[in-house]
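REQUEST ID: PR-0412
SUBMITTED BY: lab tech R.K.
PRIORITY: routine
TASK: structure prediction, single protein chain
INPUT:
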Amino acid sequence: MASATIDQAKFEALFGKILSEIGGAASLLVAYVGDRLGLYRAMVAAGPATSDAIAARAGIDARYMREWLSANAAAGYVEFDEANQTFTLSPEAELIFAADGDPRCLQGFIQALKSVYDDEEKSTEAIRTGTGVPWGDRSAGCFCGTDRFFRPGYAMNLVESWIPALNGVREKLEAGAKVADIGCGHASSTMLMAKAFPNSQFHGFDFHAPSIEAARAKAGAEGVGNASFEVASAKTYPGDGYDLVCIFDALHDMGDPAGAATHIRESLAPGGSFMVVEPLAGDRLSDNLHVLGQIFYSVSTLVCVPASKAQEVGRSLGAQAGEAQLSAVLREGGFTDIRRAAQTETNMVLEARV
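STATUS: complete
OUTPUT:
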C-alpha cells in the first residue's frame, strides 16, 4: 500500500501511461519478429488482403499470421477492415516498418532496443556493482541494429549538410584530404564520405575487431578503394596529418573522451577540424524531460554508461551529455575553437579546431 495519500487523477494518468508503454514494449517485439520474417514487406506486396493471402505470400503458417496481424491491428500499426476481413499496411506505416534505408524507418532502432533487452542481465549486474559492460560483450544485434538505425540519418545529413557546415572542410575533401573516422563501427559513415569524395583517403578505426571485419567486408563488396579499416582505440590510432577527424555518436561512450580529444588534436594537420556528432540534448536535466530524453537516458543507463565504465577512466558522459559538457571535454583535449556547426531533430554537430 502507498505510504501517503495519493492524487487519484495523477495516479490514473501515470497508470495509463505505463499501461500504454507496456503495450508498446510488447508490440515492438512483435514488430521486430515481423521485420525478421519479412512480414511487413509481404504486406506491401499484397496490398489489402486477408490473413490467409498474406500468409501464403510470406510463406508463414496461416494461424501465426492471423495472430501477428491481430497484434499489429490492436497496436494501430496496420489497418483492419472488418467487412472484408482484410489487413492493410498504410503508406505511412510502410515508411516506419518496411522502408529499410529510409531515415523514417524505425526497424533499426527497434532491433537495437531489442538487443538491450537481450543484455539485461549484464546491465543489471553492472549497475549493481558499479562496474561496466565491455562493448564487445554486447549481443550481436546491438552492433547491427545500431548501424542500421544511424545509417539513414547519416545518409541524409552527413555529405549534404554536416560537412558543408564545417570551415573549409568540403573544399579540402573535394581536392584530396586525409580523414580518420574514429569508432567507425560497421563503417556506414566512412563509406558515405569515401563515395562522396573519391579524391580523399579515409581511415576507419574501431576497438571492436568484429566491427572492423564487417567494415572491411562492406568496403570490398561495394568496391570502395579509398577507405581502409584498422583495429585501434581513439587514444592509440596511428598516423598524423589528418585534415578531418570524425566521431559519430560515440564520444560519450568512451572511457577517456578527454584523452581521445588530446590524441585527435595531436594527429590533426595544421588547420584541421574535429567533427563530433552526438545525440541532441540540453545542458540541464529539465531540458531533456521529453520522449527523446526518455529514450536516450534509458539506453544510456543500460548501454552507454556501462560501456564507458568498462574502459580506463570511465568518465561516463552518457548519451545526454549536452553541449556544455562536450565542449569542456574538447577544451581539456586542447581545442580552443569550438562551435555547434549543425543540428537535426536528434543530433548536434560540433566542430573543434585549435
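NOTES: DSSP finds 14 helices and nine strands in the chain.
REVIEWED BY: pending
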